[in-house]
Amino acid sequence: MILYSYFRSSAAYRVRIAMHLKGLAPEYRAVHLVKDGGEQHAPAYRALNPQGRVPYLIDGQVQLGQSLAIIEYLEETHPLPPLLPRDAAGRARVRSIALAIAADIQPLQNLSTTRYLEERLGLPQEQRDAWIAHWVAVGLGALETQLGREPATGRYCHGDLPTLADCCLVPQMFAARRFGVDVANYPTLARIDAVCQELPAVAAAAPARQPDAS
Amino acid sequence: MILYSYFRSSAAYRVRIAMHLKGLAPEYRAVHLVKDGGEQHAPAYRALNPQGRVPYLIDGQVQLGQSLAIIEYLEETHPLPPLLPRDAAGRARVRSIALAIAADIQPLQNLSTTRYLEERLGLPQEQRDAWIAHWVAVGLGALETQLGREPATGRYCHGDLPTLADCCLVPQMFAARRFGVDVANYPTLARIDAVCQELPAVAAAAPARQPDAS
User: B168 and B104 in one domain?
Assistant: First the structure.
């Protein structure tokens, strides 16, 4: 297996957590999203992945983008340990939490979006920071309310084992801290993030531990 | 089953297509995303769904947001007709196409995002239109390249039966046309969209056919 990744990409970080939790050790290929305008836009990478994003997985004949699709694929091909609960309601809840991060927060804070704000709209740093702070606060606030009140929340986002939802939460909390958001406003999420960080698999997936960290 | 929906919401439209394809007829509850600043922000709706978005599904004890999580839940609880292929590689491909729309395009064109551009950043209509056109062009362009070259593309996004990917493509093409994007630039996607529109289930899910259409 080959994983195209960038150490600081939230989406790649999700997949790295899932792979470490499942004991998978792919060949790591770094795609630098910033250097020289972004290696993801280079013709050779675009020929591989027309979406020009990371993560991207190659597993034999399978070539696959989109972090949640990759993790679901790993879940089906390497079921143990499971990253989704067994019951349909639980699986739905985990996927819903994951998507609340992957579809509602992360697209608005990611590099291609903030680059548009800077380069095409000419927004100063202050307005770009306010943009990110807004979407992170809206998204994490809703998630805090939901996880804080639902009895299915346990030691982790769902019950007492890490799931796909935690694979998404940890990188989102990392990003929030990086953008200067005070995560103490989200005590349930901060507690779960801290519990996740105790897992060696989660620690091993951290941006600073990747070969392309700088 | 109760589905909270808004006729023009891309995400609710996805779920409506999936439900019609599976022959499910939920009670339809309209949440007007524009009127009076948006009914999704009203305390009663926020109490139900802290994310303040549609779609939202109630099925017995299960309460669930996020369109792709809802469709996966329907797939597990009402497996026929299937909206995912049987093989792991095919399932992964379908999910990847769905997410390329749901996580990479739609969050940037949706109402909460464009409202921020207008109300907080004071961008004129022309710059808001250019923003939407940019993200739709980037996203659909990548998808056109992918679907155009992959042999797994068939009559529909994946093979000759409609899947979760088509549930996402149809609303995205509807949104693109609504925003004035020339979909003829994406011949593979436009062809698949036209084939989908021939299905009575897809036609029945169209915004104009919903009780809250205006």
Answer: yes
- Tell me, what's the pLDDT at A169? 98
Q: How far is the alpha carbon of A10 from chain B, nearest alpha carbon, in Å?
A: 13
* pTM of the entire predicted model: 0.98
My answer on whether B29 and B109 are in the same domain is no
Q: Contact B208/B171 with Cβ under 8 angstroms?
A: no
| Predicted confidence (pLDDT) per residue in B66-103, tens digit | 999 999 999 999 999 999 999 999 999 999 999 999 99
Q: Are residues A114 and A195 in the same domain?
A: yes
Mutation site for A-interface testing, chosen from B48, B71, B96, B120 by largest number of A Cβ within 10 Å: B96
B170 and B98 in a common domain = yes
User: Residue A134: closest CA among chain B residues belongs to which residue?
Assistant: B116
Q: Decide which of B42, B58, B81 is a domain's last residue.
A: B81
Domain match, A64 and A144 both: no
Whether residue B91 lies within 8 A of chain A, CB to CB, comes out as yes
Residue B36 has pLDDT above 90, yes or no: no
Q: Domain ends where: A28, A63, A81?
A: A81
Query: Which site among B48, B66, B140 would you substitute to test the A interface, given the most A Cβ atoms closer than 10 Å to its Cβ?
Result: B66
| B170 and B104 in a common domain | yes
Minimum Cα–Cα distance from A140: chain B residue:
B51
If asked whether residues B23 and B113 sit together in one domain, one would say: no
How many beta carbons lie within 10 A of that of residue A122, not counting itself?
8
* B188 and chain A in contact, CB less than 8 A: no
Same domain, B77 and B92: no
Chain A residue numbers with beta carbons less than 8 Å from the beta carbon of B9 are: none
Which range marks the domain in which residue B110 is found? 88-201
CB burial of residue B149 (10 Å; 0-12, 13-18, 19+): exposed
User: What pLDDT digit, counting tens, does each position of B40-72 carry?
Assistant: 999 999 999 999 999 999 999 999 999 999 999
Residue B179 has pLDDT above 90, yes or no: yes
SS3 A146: helix
The predicted model gives A180-191 an average pLDDT of: 96
Name chain A contacts of B66, Cβ cutoff 8 Å. 95-96, 99-100, 103
Token pair belonging to A19: 């792979």
- Beta-carbon count within 10 A of A160 CB: 8
CATH number at residue A100: 1.20.1050.10
Query: Which of B69, B78, B72 lies closest to B26, judged by CA?
Result: B78
Structural domain count of chain A: 2
| pLDDT at position B137 over 90 | yes
Nearest CA in chain B to A72: B92
Cβ <8 Å between A92 and B69: yes
- Please say whether the beta carbons of B125 and B180 come within 8 A: no
CB-based contact, B125 to chain A, within 8 Å? no
Q: How far apart are CA B132 and CA B146, in angstroms?
A: 21
The amino acid that residue B56 corresponds to is Y
